[in-house]
Amino acid sequence: MKEAEGLQGTADQPKASPEALAFLSSIEVDQCLFADSLVTISDSGRELGEFSVSIQKASYENEPCYMVHANSHGAIDNIPCGTSITAYVSSSLETLEQNHHEYMKCLYGKVHVYLLQEVKKQTFTLPLHSIQGFVSEATNFIILRILAQQKKIPEKIMFLSFNADTQLSVATYRELGTKKQVVGKEMVDVFGIEMTISSGDDIQASWHCYFLPDGHLASRVQLGSPVTMNLLQLPPIANKDQKPVFEKKPLVWEEDMELHSKFLDRKEELKAGHSSYVRDHPELKTLLADFMQFLLLRKPQDVFSFAQDFFAPFDFQRPPDSSFKTS
């Protein structure tokens, strides 16, 4: 096991811009609570897998927050592989916790497998004030949806993020404009955003993402990758202004022939069942007659307590009440 522990943070450490901090303090995440599902396609047009991302309300340590779940799975050279991200994010887009999991399934029996395992642990300690404006992979999905819905990217917004080597870098967003894209059988307008992770003059990675007007992801591609993620079907349109009205209708079952017929049938069924039970248990009449006779003789003020004492001897799990013994 290799372990590296230390303090990361120097005078050359990048910082988020004031415009980025102002953006984080002014956003509303509730408009981004939906799921996207895209198909991963190679440059030759072959489907390789699926990509999905969802944002929903949740709680973290009994505090309200948002849960972001992104999942990508497919096959590379016929070998199944995938990536899963689950994160909890506050309303100000502070990442409370994020788990990143990658997997690859080996095809045993078809190849010679040599299993090598190396566990590498890295611990980074950063002053809290130095990572203001930090955005994780999960937070990035929320920011992209908000920018797409606004169709405008504020100038000079520069966030902090990690690159592939977990080094603190700069995350920037740039407008790509509007273009046409075929989704299903329709031609729709999509708004493009470029997201870049860079360290100084060294650009680590860039993504081009195009969105529908409501913020649903229409396509996503990492520059230099032969794989593109495309939306194949338009999501259903939700009309938030129009709310369904359900009128309460009184139920007059006596006027409903079917319900009234069922009521009469059930009534006769119960009466027949009661009569049959009384015939099968003749001691019931004798027991009730004794109780009524004893009740009228004593005329107690508390009828319920008297009835409880009278029938107590028939309960084999409790002794008779002392007051009834006295009576």
UniProtKB/TrEMBL annotation:
<dbReference type="InterPro" id="IPR047501">
    <property type="entry name" value="DD_CATIP"/>
</dbReference>
<feature type="domain" description="Ciliogenesis-associated TTC17-interacting protein N-terminal">
    <location>
        <begin position="19"/>
        <end position="226"/>
    </location>
</feature>
<keyword id="KW-0539">Nucleus</keyword>
<dbReference type="GO" id="GO:0005634">
    <property type="term" value="C:nucleus"/>
</dbReference>
<comment type="similarity">
    <text>Belongs to the CATIP family.</text>
</comment>
<dbReference type="GO" id="GO:0044782">
    <property type="term" value="P:cilium organization"/>
</dbReference>
<comment type="function">
    <text>Plays a role in primary ciliogenesis by modulating actin polymerization.</text>
</comment>
<keyword id="KW-0970">Cilium biogenesis/degradation</keyword>
<keyword id="KW-0963">Cytoplasm</keyword>
<dbReference type="InterPro" id="IPR048777">
    <property type="entry name" value="CATIP_N"/>
</dbReference>
<keyword id="KW-0472">Membrane</keyword>
<dbReference type="GO" id="GO:0030041">
    <property type="term" value="P:actin filament polymerization"/>
</dbReference>
<dbReference type="Pfam" id="PF21772">
    <property type="entry name" value="CATIP_N"/>
</dbReference>
<protein>
    <recommendedName>
        <fullName>Ciliogenesis-associated TTC17-interacting protein</fullName>
    </recommendedName>
</protein>
<dbReference type="GO" id="GO:0005856">
    <property type="term" value="C:cytoskeleton"/>
</dbReference>
<keyword id="KW-0206">Cytoskeleton</keyword>
<dbReference type="GO" id="GO:0005886">
    <property type="term" value="C:plasma membrane"/>
</dbReference>
<keyword id="KW-1003">Cell membrane</keyword>
